[in-house]
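User: Need the bound-state model for copper (II) ion:
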Amino acid sequence: MRSITWNLFLGLVVAVIASGGCGSDSGSFKVVLTADDQMKFDQTTIEVPAGAQVSLTLKHVGKMSAKQMGHNFVLLDEGTDLNVFALAAASAIQTEYIPANQKKKVIAHTRMLGGGESDTVVFTAPAPGTYKFICSFPGHYTTMRGDFVVG
Ligand SMILES: [Cu+2]
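Assistant: Bound-state model below.
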């Protein structure tokens, strides 16, 4: 019983350290974004300082598999036509819905995740401006999109 309590306590400490939210430490700016089985990100605006090294973690907090309800985070360059990108992405199943012919438009992206999974991508924030991020799983970008503001 005692060890169960202790393990629970340790688990909590780890969870608190791991959760983070938005914040910065030693040069890297941490962002934690979640996605769920309702085809939604928990944030539609992400703000980061210009020039920051961004460490962005996407957590799929749902239960569905990557085949049914896969989610990723794809940050697109300014001026990217979302409809054109998403259409190309929809047929890029071999490359986790990152289309090879649109790769130049991708600033950073995570893996495609199923429920319970997470992935972190580290990248340097692009020039100040407002960029779009989406989930490139077929059909998801209509609800899973937001502004990535570098300021
Ligand atoms: Cu998705």
